[in-house]
Specification:
single chain, alpha+beta, 4-stranded antiparallel β-sheet, 10 strands
Length: about 280
């Protein structure tokens, strides 16, 4: 009678084929950071194109810990995690892949009508459709559909069936978030002095673009105190542009993406943004 391969055995096989792997614990989620990396105090994981000085050998920083190095996968530092693991996760974007996670039968029906056929893997409630090519990840792009590629992890559920197709524009389009409409300028009391005719000077495209780019650089360049840096940067952006209606969802997404590239979670980003708005009375 054949035995089910252990998570470590499966992970080593995947790593040898060029797929970055990591152990997943109960709940099918990554292991938490070690004490030295708690709160991202170390500055982030340098692999997977993530800037930062951290070279911790532990299974830290969630998806950014995924690796194809068999010496790391089978290292003593990862041994305890494998003993506690329930399954293997992988970083699709690190393998130039995109997973369209279809969470129920309705989502599968939609995909069969709307997307090109590709390799499929059955899940507990639906299917994973795997395409060749990486893109930004985004959850809830439509009911029951998540996209897992860069800066995300997926659960490995087997090789699947079918021929893998190139990532189609129909999938890329799902992750494009429409910017929110620009709100009317606030009342004159919040328009900076020296402005004539009540027009907001921040709507000068170059001014706003430069400001967002500088904010991104400030976040991604942080080598320590990342939480504090993200909050202070959000606070600075909102103090300059938060009252005039300049900021769109696209600008906010860029800032959140920069923060997540340093290991911040979406929840941390949302909390920092909300706290900054509260501080400014927005």
């Amino acid at each position: 009678m054949s035995r089910t391969p252990s998570p470590l055995h499966t992970a080593l096989s995947l790593a040898a084929s060029g797929i970055p792997v990591l152990p997943l614990r109960r709940g099918k989620v990554p292991f938490g950071n070690c004490p030295a990396c708690a709160g991202n105090a170390c500055g982030g994981r340098p692999n997977m194109r993530i800037p930062g000085p951290c070279r911790c050998p532990s299974v830290c920083h969630a998806w950014a810990a995924a690796t194809t190095d068999p010496a790391v996968v089978a290292s003593p530092a990862w041994a305890a995690a494998w003993r506690q693991s329930v399954c293997v996760g992988y970083h699709p974007g690190g393998a130039d892949l995109t997973v369209v996670d279809l969470d129920d039968a309705d989502a599968v029906t939609w995909a069969r009508a709307a997307l090109p056929a590709t390799r499929t893997v059955p899940t507990t409630r639906g299917e994973h459709w795997i395409y060749l090519g990486a893109m930004p990840s985004r959850n809830a792009v439509r009911p029951g559909v998540d996209i897992k590629s860069t800066m995300a992890y997926a659960r490995y559920l087997g090789p699947g069936t079918g021929t893998m197709a190139d990532l189609p524009n129909a999938v890329r389009a799902l992750a494009v978030k429409e910017p929110s409409p620009v709100r009317p300028a606030a009342h004159a009391a919040v328009v900076p002095a020296g402005v004539r005719g009540g027009e907001c000077p921040h709507r000068t495209p170059a001014y706003l673009t430069r400001g967002i780019a500088m904010a991104e650089q400030r976040i991604t360049g942080a080598s320590s105190a990342v939480h504090a840096t993200v909050y202070r940067t959000f606070l600075a952006v909102l103090s300059r542009h938060g009252r005039c209606g300049c900021l769109t969802d696209d600008h906010i997404t860029r800032l959140f993406t920069a923060a997540q590239s340093k290991g911040e979670t979406l929840r941390h980003c949302t909390d920092a943004w909300t706290n900054a708005r509260t501080t400014l009375g927005l």
